[in-house]
Amino acid sequence: MNDGPRSPTGLRPTPDAATARPAAASGADRRTVVGGLGTLLSLGVALAIAAGWHLTQGTSSVGLGDLLAATVGGETGAAGAAREILLGSRLPRLAAGIAVGFALGVAGALFQSLARNALASPDTLAVTAGAYFAVSAVAAFGLGVPLWASGVVAFIGGLLAAGLVLGLAGGAGSSTTRLVLAGSVVAMALQSATAAVLIGFQQETTGLFAWGSGSLSQLGLTAFGQAAPVVVGATAVALLLARRLDLLGLGDDTAGALGVPVRATRAVGTVLAVLLTAAAVTLAGPIGFVGLCAPAVTRMSARFVPALHRHAVLVPAAGLVGALTVVAADGVVRALLGADRAGQVPTGVATTLVGAVLLVVLARRVRDSGPTRRPPGSRMGPQGRRRYWTVLAVVGATAAGTGLLGLLAGNTWLLTGDIALWLTGEGSPVVRFALDERAPRVAAALAAGGALALSGSLVQATCRNPLAEPGILGITGGAGLAAVVVVTGGVGGVGGNAMMIAAATGGALAAFGLVYSVAWRGGLHTDRLVLVGVGVWYAATALTTYLLVRSNPWDTPKIYTWLSGTTYGRSWTQVVPVVLALLVALPVALAARRELDLLAIDEDTPRIVGVGLERTRLLVLALAAALAALSVTAIGVVGFVGLVAPHAARALVGGRHARIIPAAVLLGAVLLGLADIVGRTVVAPAQLPAGLAVALIGAPYFVYLLARSRA
Length: 711
Prior knowledge:
30 helices; mainly alpha; 711 residues
């Protein structure tokens, strides 16, 4: 006779045994709650300690004891003076740092959860760029608005940018890859538009550029008082979404089956993150990296603190980590440099350096950053041979036509007969002068565009990541930083083209070596490589900004123009190294076409067929680094070409690198050549840097690729 289920010992289960599973689950929940509260309390204590130390940093000799005495002392004498310093300067700066860091940390956590991608942040999803552009445009055109209205302007700019990103990606329920790709495109275009505004108002460039790097300097607690309720309210609503966000991490289908309104959750979460970012930008300018670093560091710590897997703990913890990062970074800079000298360093530079180091250290533990890494168009089957040769002929003819148009176009338009006379050493002095100036810049644009496109093709194939390009691996950032050191006289005041080439090449290779060596951990994981590259890229950008802000204010527009990518004033000595590098690298890349095809598939296939995965990957990335470095010496820091040209080539000729490489090189030359023409004709006699024009030209085509890939 069966009297019921028995325990493993053969006895009937007791009431305690029957409830063992629920009791165990309840105990686990209690431990999670206790662990979460303990984590938040620990972070709060750490922030309080950092805040107390931060209050002691300033231009006066007032210390912590004086400040404590001022809180209970009178309104006159030493206590009154200390009280004025506390309330007028130090406390507003500290309050701004806490509010900005907390807002960006929470916003980044929301974006990463909604996109399920470690690279998602207010920066990579264009929210910061949209808010910055809106505020900068209002300030640059002299439209005076109160602080609360500036917050509204920033929110509208960020929300419009986020709406555009979501529209391009296919809505709030879009895939991770599409969302981040669309965000990167919109961010590049908005950053270029902002840079154009700054360059167009040269007398205001220094102040706008410094503000654009983030500053905690405050005139009182008024701004904090207006921003704090927004930050607290948005965070409270985000906590109400915690359970939905937990389930959303299981996947859209699973979350929907469990009753989560996926699209509504993404829409509300996006609005909250935009609101938090706008509040931070309004209060202190766009302080970079915190929205990417703070939640990434918090998530990576979940392996030690399991409670961080739950958004009820993760969201406030990311905010506290963000606040701690901002306050600690600002305090360290003021302590090391002194308050007077530290005033010349934008707060965003310090937070970026600190956050970059933290992300690079913890990125070595990363396992995955997203479910898919194949770029749009890479799944396309092989195209016919006739189509390939037709496309190549058309693109080649377009490149030749672009070069010819570049020689003809300018403030003074020439004729083809003028070019023929110039080639024979004849023609009027005006024609000879114009072509002597135009020919090197046209050659620089075509050669550097081809080099950047080839570099981007190699990087994308190696990393199998649609966001991968020379910039995101720190290569162009390292080259730009080294070149700016030379331009600003940081190396014994020595300049010159030879020094520029050597410095940029060395900087790019050093950045690449640093990224590769740090990312290596018993092998090279492509997600880890990209995260480390992002950290090095941000660090190089922060140091470049620091050098720019400290340079002669009258030289700032010139240097900033070079950092935006310019072909103005090029000489043949700057063009020849890029041409030679391209002539050497192109045959090498074509010879390695089979290895590149295999690298673009997965990690296992190259090993199965006998390809030395790590050796091949190292050689390919080193070649990409050298190409990017030499392009920087010729035209400055230009983005977007290495991202869009390989995508366009892949969409036109298929996924085989024997076809992608020639098409991408020609498309890169066309893209940068057209950007040079547009930059010196549409606003003639003034000139728009080619790097800004290329983003404005390339963004619409990349948008077309995103729309086409929806099918």
